[in-house]
Amino acid sequence: MSNSAAERNRPLSPNIQIYRPQLTSVLSIVNRITGVALSIYAVALVVWLVAAATGPWAYATVQGVIASRIGQIALLGCTFAFFLHLCGGIRHLVWDTAHGFELRSIYISGWAVVAASVVLSALAWIARSFVAG
Amino acid sequence: MDRQRMRSPLSRAMGLGSAKEGAEQWWMARVSAVALIPLTLWFVASIIAHTDSDYVTFIVWLRMPLVSILMVLLLIALFYHTALGLQVVIEDYVHSGAKFGALIAVRLGCVALAVTGILATMRIAFGG
Fold it and tell me: What is the residue-level pLDDT of chain B in tens, covering all 128 positions?
C-alpha cells in the first residue's frame, strides 16, 4: 500500500506480456471476460423484466432496442459469450472433480469448448430464424 | 521453540490458519453454476421460442406458475453467481483504494438487481 514510485513500478509476476498466448491461457481469460460481459447482460435482463411489468409501451420500447441493428449485434455477442462461459464453466466443473488435467485432455477440452460454443450459438440463431419464419 | 515442536499438528492448526470461510465462496460459486446450467438453457430456449410473440403472449407465458418459479430461481442463481464472480475479478485485479468500494458496490448492486427482477416477475405473475 506504499505510494513510493519505486514500489508502484515493480513488475508483477507472472509477466504475462512476455508469454505467447496459448489456448489454455486465452480460454482462461475469456472465461473471465465473458463472465463480466454477461453481468452487463444480466442488468439488461432486469431492465427487460421491469419493462414487461410496467406495460405494453415500455415492453415495446425495449423490444425495439433489441430489434435494432446494435441490439441484434449485442444479442449475438450475448449468445456467444453465454455459450463460451457455459461450456468453459462445465470444463471447470469437470476439473473440480480432479479429471482432465493431462496436457492432451486440456487441449482437447479447450478446443471442444470453442467448437461447442460456435455450434451452439449458430444453432440458437438458426432456431430463432425458424421461429421468426 | 521446543514447546512449539511438542504440540500435535492438530493443536498447531487450531486457532491459526484459515478463517474457515474460504471454501464456502468457492463452493457456492460451483453450486450456483450447476443451478444455472439448466436454468439458463431453459431461458435461452424459451426466448428463442418467443421470438415472434407479442406482449400479451409473453405475459401469459410468464404468468404460468412453473415459468414464474423458474424465472425467480434464475434471477437468484444468476445474481448470486455474478456477485461471487465479480468479487473474484475485483480481488484479483483491483489493488487500489477503490477495491473495497467496488466490492461493496458489486454486492449491493447484485442484491438490488435480483430483488428488482424478482419483484417485476411477481408483479407480472400476480398482476390483475
Answer: 556 667 777 777 776 666 667 788 899 999 999 999 999 999 999 999 998 889 999 999 999 999 999 999 999 999 999 999 999 999 999 988 899 999 999 999 999 999 999 999 999 999 86
CATH number of the A22-132 domain: 1.20.1300.10
Residues of B in contact with A46 (CB under 8 A): 75, 113, 116-117, 120
pTM, 2 dp: 0.86
Chain B hits for A86, Cβ within 8 Å: 37, 40-41
Question: What are the chain A neighbours of B33 within 8 Å (beta carbons)?
Answer: 89, 92-93
* Number of domains chain B contains: 1
Query: What is the value of ipTM here, to two decimals?
Result: 0.87
**What is the rounded distance in angstroms from the CA atom of residue A11 to the CA atom of residue A9?**
6
Measured in angstroms, the CA of A80 and the nearest CA of chain B are apart by 12
User: B94: domain range?
Assistant: 26-126
Query: In chain B, which residue's Cα lies nearest the Cα of A83?
Result: B41
Q: Among A46, A49, A96, whose Cβ lies nearest the Cβ of B30?
A: A96
